[in-house]
Design a protein that fits this description.
The complex is a heterodimer of chains A (77) and B (399).
Chain A lengths: L8 E4 L18 E5 L5 H4 L5 E6 L10 E5 L3 E3 L1
Antiparallel strand pairs in A: 1-2, 1-5, 2-3, 3-4
Chain B lengths: L8 H15 L3 E2 L18 H11 L4 H4 L1 H5 L30 E13 L10 E4 L3 E4 L9 E13 L5 E14 L16 H12 L19 E7 L38 E3 L6 E3 L8 H6 L10 H15 L4 E8 L10 E13 L2 E12 L4 E10 L17
Antiparallel strand pairs in B: 1-3, 2-6, 2-10, 3-5, 4-5, 5-6, 7-11, 8-9, 10-13, 11-12, 12-13
Classes of the chains: A mainly beta (77), B alpha+beta (399).
Chain lengths: 77, 399
């Protein structure tokens, strides 16, 4: 069963898997809302662990931008 | 706001036109006319055609590029890089909109399946299925008109009437009443020295498994494959050069394309909606920030080959010369700004036996240093087992 659904408010809880040590992950604790990128189960279900999030307006550099995260790096709030 | 299955007069006309055009796209594929001549293959496959295509898809692995090297592998000759079949694929054609409805689309991705290698001497033809367009407008009636569009679907067939590969290309089409919303502008990504050092290290340390056989017996689920990288990208770098081709018909003509009011992604021109002034562009969404914004993007973004080629390369590097890509699925989930760098990571997800084939599934994801995942893929690779010695080779005595 999908961990998140459209409209869920989420917080970024961890960096993506294998995040490189050379770069600070600046989106930790950023918040946003889950959206369906493309509603096409036959095509997108195999990739359902990647979650499309519209970042909240206050997110530094990315307010209102859609970003994609691993499912397990997000937490429902 | 649109209701699924209920269409305005303009939409009915768009759909009627699309249906008429879709009927013409079924059957044996004729040579494409939307690519430069050098990118369209002769149906008779030669070693030169394979190496020329390989030099565009993965110029670094000798297995795809050197006849002498490939001849000394289990295959006994060059075989086609997995993306070689694209040269025979059917022409794509976006849904044609009408004034009043602005059309945008997501290029979602591909699914490929491969059944046998392509070798010099083969003759390849392709059968195109009718494209499909399915209304996927949100059932709430509060959203945009959306369609699930299979813009390309074909089987590739050799001279022995064997299907050697199949592919499907997916798009999502959106219709906007008026100008589309524009994603907020993202600043250009600026690098720190240690980031550039890290990327340079990934380039320096990219490994190709080559002739050391990767045995299925030794593969462990959960293990990572070695990362590869691409970028920081430029407008003319690797992958971007595979961008909007100049159709053969445009090269010699002394013409200037005429401006028409824009109701879809700009190609030749785009108009500044504030000033009404018109600007010339080529390649639009991939080469010009303001043209990208005209159709709702934040800024000019990567052509699909920028992530797609290295994402497959990460897998072909890992698998070695004796393996075979059986399936490759790729989804282009983010509009990555030009100038960004991508780091492709991969993990072994599954290991299994199917129809006597020893297979592993590998998932890959592209990390952008901004913090997002930009593209994702799934590959199925057939590997040899330690019990397979000289697979498919028979002793034939005719003395």
């Amino acid at each position: 069963m999908a961990k998140f659904k459209d409209g869920d408010k989420v917080k970024v809880n961890a960096a993506p898997v294998n995040w490189p040590a050379c770069t600070e992950f600046t989106l930790l604790s950023a918040t946003g809302t889950v959206e369906t990128w493309v509603d096409w189960p036959e095509v997108m279900d195999p990739y359902s662990e990647y979650i499309y999030v519209k970042m909240d307006k206050g997110t530094k550099s990315y307010g209102g931008v859609h970003l994609i995260f691993h499912e397990h790096t997000l937490k429902k709030i | 706001m649109a209701v699924r299955g209920v269409y305005s007069k303009i939409e009915k006309k768009i759909l009627a036109d699309w249906n008429k055009e879709a009927d013409t796209r079924v059957g044996w594929c004729k040579p494409r006319n939307d690519m430069p001549v050098f990118m369209v293959s002769d149906p008779e496959v030669t070693a030169e055609a394979l190496t020329r295509a390989a030099s565009e898809n993965d110029p670094w692995n000798p297995f795809w590029n050197l006849k002498s090297y490939a001849s000394a592998t289990r295959w006994g000759s060059l075989i086609g890089h997995p993306f070689f079949i694209e040269r025979f694929s059917p022409m794509t054609s976006m849904v044609q909109t009408k004034p009043g409805l602005f059309l945008t689309f997501y290029y979602i991705g591909y699914d490929y399946e491969y059944y046998q290698p392509i070798r010099p001497g083969d003759t390849i033809r392709a059968w195109a299925y009718r494209p499909t367009l399915e209304d996927s407008t949100d059932l709430s009636g509060k959203g945009l008109r959306k369609f699930r569009y299979v813009d390309g679907h074909a089987d590739f067939i050799n001279q022995r009437d064997e299907i050697i590969a199949s592919y499907k290309l997916y798009c999502e089409v959106q219709m906007h009443e008026g100008a589309p919303p524009v994603e907020p502008y993202m600043e250009e990504y600026g690098y720190k020295v240690k980031e550039l050092e890290h990327l340079a290290g990934l380039y320096d340390n990219e490994k190709i498994q080559g002739d050391k056989i990767r045995y299925w017996d030794d593969v462990k689920v959960g293990n990572d494959i070695d990362p590869v990288t691409t970028g920081p990208t430029t407008f003319t770098g690797y992958g971007m050069l595979g961008g909007p081709p100049t159709p053969p018909g445009q090269i010699p003509r002394r013409i200037m394309p005429r401006y028409e009011e824009q109701w879809t992604i700009p190609n030749n021109y785009f108009k500044d909606r504030n000033t009404g002034l018109i600007y010339r562009t080529h390649g639009a969404r991939h080469f010009n920030d303001r043209a990208a914004q005209f159709e709702g993007g934040s800024r000019a973004w990567h052509f699909n080959t920028v992530p797609r080629l290295p994402m497959l390369r990460a897998v072909t590097n890992w698998m070695g010369d004796d393996a075979f890509i059986s399936k490759y699925g790729w989804r282009h989930t983010w509009r990555t700004p030009i100038g960004d760098a991508l780091i492709i990571n991969g993990k072994i997800e599954k290991k299994y036996v199917e129809d006597s084939d020893h297979l592993v599934d590998i998932k890959c994801w592209c990390l952008d240093l901004r913090g997002t995942i930009t593209d994702v893929s799934r590959s199925t690779v057939k590997l040899l087992t330690k019990a397979d010695k000289y697979p498919n080779v028979k002793k034939v005595i005719k003395r």
